[in-house]
Amino acid sequence: MSRLSIAGGHQRQQELVVAFFIIIIAMIGILLFVQEKVIYYIAGVLAFAAILWCQFKSKRWVYLTFLSIPFSPSIPLYQMRYTITAELSDFVVLATLFVFLLNYFMGEVRRKPYDSYIMIPLAGYILICALSSLLGYYILNALGHLFKWTGYAFLYIVIFKTFNTKEDFINLLRVIIVAFGLGSLVTIFNYGAVASGGPEVHRVGGLFEGLNAYGVLLALVLVFYFNLILQKKAKEIFPNWVVISFCATILLALVATFSRTAWVGLLGSLVAIFFIRGRRHIAIVLMFLTLLAFWALGKPVETRLEATIEKPSEILPFDLGDRDQIWKAAWAKSKRSFFFGVGYSNFQLVRMGTTAHNQYLAILGDSGVFALAAFIFFLVRLFRANLYLWRNHPLPFFQECAFGCWVVFCMTIVLSMTGEYFQVVIAHLMAFYACARLSFQMISENNRPARAAPATVPIGYKYLWNRQ
Questions:
Q1: Where are the domains of the chain?
Q2: Of the candidates 349, 418, 433, 348, which has an alpha carbon nearest to the alpha carbon of residue 384?
Q3: pTM, entire model
C-alpha cells in the first residue's frame, strides 16, 4: 500500500471523528435550546472551543479531563428503579480514551512497556468486579459504574503512553491546581450567597456532586501542593505567590464544605508532613494560614465543631454521623453474598438503602471478598511504589511529588474508612503517581552503569534500578 493511500485513509478517519464530534455538539445544542438556560449556552460554546483546541492530541485531552473535574455537576440520564447519572467529566474521559485508542491503533502513540507492577493488580480487581457484576443484580447499573471508574483509573495508561518530557508533567500539575483554584471560587461564591452571618452551618460545594467527596478531593490537592511549597519546589510550577494564592482559595473552599472528614484529613496530613520533613518556619506559616481560614468563617465552624463533640458515638468520643450503626449493618448484610457480592455499586441498592460509608465494606458488599483482596493488593503495591520513588528518585522535584503522593495516598486509605473516596480521587492519585513514576523511568532509560538493587526494592522496580 502506498504512502498516499495510507495518508488518505488517515484523513478519512479524521473526517469521521470530526463528524462524530459535530453530531454530538449538535445534540448538546438541541438539549441546551430546550433547557433555555444561558449558562448552558456558555458551557456549549466553551465545550466547542475546547474540542477545537484538543483535536486529536491525547495529551491535550488529558489536560482537559483534569480541568473539567471540578466543574462536573451530576446529570440524570435515565430513571429506573435507580437513577443512572453521569458527570461532565465522564464524557471528557470517554473522549480522551477514544482519541487515545484512535492514535494508538494508527501508530501515533509511542511504544513503551506498561507499568505491570501496578497495572496487573488493578486489572485483576477490575476483572473480578466485572465478573461479580455479570453474576449480580442490575447488570446495567453495575457495569456502567464500573466502566466509569475504570475510565478514570486508566487515564494513568494514557499519561504513561503519551507524556514524554518533564514539561508535560509540569503542565499537568499546573492544570490541576488552576482547575481547583477556579472551582473553589465557585464554592466561595455559593457560600457567600447563602451565608447569613449567624451560627447556622450552610454546607456548600461547587459544581461537583457530593460534599464530603468534594471536600476530600480538595484536601488531597491541598496536601500535595502544600508539600511542594514546604520543600520550596512549587516555583517549578508557578511563581510561589501564585501557588500560595491558589492554595489559599482552595483552603477556604474546603472549609466552606464543612466536611469534617476533609478537615481531619487535611490537618492530620499537614502534621505528618511537618514531622517527617521538618522546615518548621514554613510549616508554622502554613498551619497558621490553615487555622486562619477556619477562623474566617467564624461561628458556623464553631457550631460544627460543637455538634461533633457533643454527640459522641458508641465507639469514639465524637460524632460519626451514625456511621457506626451503618458499618454494623453493612458488615452483617455483606455476609449474605460474601464471596461474589451483588454487583459493582449495587450494595446500597440491593442490601443497604444507603452507602456503606466505608470503602472496604462497600467493595466487600458490591463484589465480594476476592475483589476486596485484589483491591488491598493493589493498594499495597501502590504504597510500596510511592515509598520507593520517594526514597530513590534522583530529581528533587519529582522526589517531592512521590512523597506528596505517598502522603495523600495514606490519607485516602484512612479517610476511606468513613466514606467511599477512592472512587472520587483515583484519577488524581494516579496522575500524581505518574509524574514520579514515569519521570523515573525516563531517567532510567539513559545509558548508565548498572548497580545492584537494594533488597527493599519492589520486584517490579528492580529492572528500573538496574537500568540507571
A1: 3-109, 110-162+328-468, 169-298
A2: 433
A3: 0.81
